[in-house]
Design goal:
Order of helices and strands: EEE
Strand content: 35-45%
Radius of gyration: 14 Å
Structural class: mainly beta
Protein backbone atom coordinates (compact mmCIF):
# COMPACT_ATOMS: atom_id res chain seq x y z
CA UNK A 1 0.00 0.00 0.00
CA UNK A 2 1.48 3.31 -0.99
CA UNK A 3 1.62 6.14 1.55
CA UNK A 4 0.82 4.38 4.75
CA UNK A 5 -1.65 1.93 6.13
CA UNK A 6 -5.26 1.51 7.20
CA UNK A 7 -6.72 2.04 3.74
CA UNK A 8 -10.34 1.20 3.08
CA UNK A 9 -10.63 -0.06 -0.50
CA UNK A 10 -13.60 -1.07 -2.60
CA UNK A 11 -13.33 -3.43 -5.56
CA UNK A 12 -16.05 -2.72 -8.10
CA UNK A 13 -17.28 -3.92 -11.45
CA UNK A 14 -17.39 -1.08 -13.95
CA UNK A 15 -20.09 -1.36 -16.59
CA UNK A 16 -19.76 1.01 -19.55
CA UNK A 17 -17.33 3.18 -17.57
CA UNK A 18 -19.69 3.55 -14.58
CA UNK A 19 -19.61 1.84 -11.20
CA UNK A 20 -22.18 -0.94 -11.00
CA UNK A 21 -23.63 -0.69 -7.48
CA UNK A 22 -24.73 -4.35 -7.54
CA UNK A 23 -21.15 -5.59 -7.76
CA UNK A 24 -18.66 -4.54 -5.11
CA UNK A 25 -16.44 -5.94 -2.36
CA UNK A 26 -14.81 -4.11 0.56
CA UNK A 27 -11.51 -4.63 2.38
CA UNK A 28 -9.38 -2.78 4.91
CA UNK A 29 -5.64 -2.92 4.19
CA UNK A 30 -3.97 -2.70 7.59
CA UNK A 31 -0.28 -2.17 6.82
CA UNK A 32 2.03 -1.52 3.89
CA UNK A 33 2.89 -5.24 3.81
CA UNK A 34 -0.67 -6.53 4.34
CA UNK A 35 -1.65 -9.41 2.06
CA UNK A 36 -5.06 -10.94 1.70
CA UNK A 37 -8.01 -11.52 -0.54
CA UNK A 38 -11.09 -9.55 -1.41
CA UNK A 39 -13.85 -11.06 -3.52
CA UNK A 40 -17.47 -10.97 -4.43
CA UNK A 41 -20.05 -12.47 -6.75
CA UNK A 42 -22.80 -10.83 -8.78
CA UNK A 43 -25.09 -11.49 -11.70
CA UNK A 44 -25.31 -8.87 -14.44
CA UNK A 45 -27.65 -8.77 -17.41
CA UNK A 46 -25.39 -7.51 -20.19
CA UNK A 47 -26.34 -6.18 -23.60
CA UNK A 48 -24.36 -6.43 -26.83
CA UNK A 49 -21.34 -4.07 -26.83
CA UNK A 50 -21.40 -3.53 -23.02
CA UNK A 51 -17.88 -2.93 -21.66
CA UNK A 52 -17.02 -4.60 -18.33
CA UNK A 53 -13.91 -3.71 -16.29
CA UNK A 54 -12.53 -4.10 -12.76
CA UNK A 55 -12.05 -0.95 -10.68
CA UNK A 56 -10.51 -0.29 -7.26
CA UNK A 57 -11.42 2.77 -5.19
CA UNK A 58 -9.41 4.14 -2.25
CA UNK A 59 -12.17 5.20 0.16
CA UNK A 60 -9.76 6.57 2.79
CA UNK A 61 -8.01 9.40 0.95
CA UNK A 62 -6.63 10.43 -2.43
CA UNK A 63 -3.27 8.62 -2.24
CA UNK A 64 -2.43 5.67 -4.48
CA UNK A 65 -3.14 2.10 -3.44
CA UNK A 66 -1.20 -0.59 -5.31
CA UNK A 67 -3.24 -3.74 -5.83
CA UNK A 68 -1.38 -6.76 -7.20
CA UNK A 69 -2.92 -9.80 -8.88
CA UNK A 70 -6.40 -8.35 -9.40
CA UNK A 71 -8.74 -10.31 -11.62
CA UNK A 72 -12.28 -10.41 -12.89
CA UNK A 73 -13.94 -13.60 -14.11
CA UNK A 74 -16.98 -13.47 -16.39
CA UNK A 75 -19.16 -16.51 -17.09
CA UNK A 76 -21.76 -16.31 -19.83
CA UNK A 77 -25.01 -18.13 -19.15
CA UNK A 78 -27.24 -18.29 -22.21
CA UNK A 79 -27.26 -15.96 -25.19
CA UNK A 80 -24.78 -15.92 -28.01
Amino acid sequence: VASGSNKEVEGVVMLNNAINTQASAHRKIGTATDTGAMGGVCILDLAAADVVALGVINETDTTDVNIEHANLTIVQIGGT
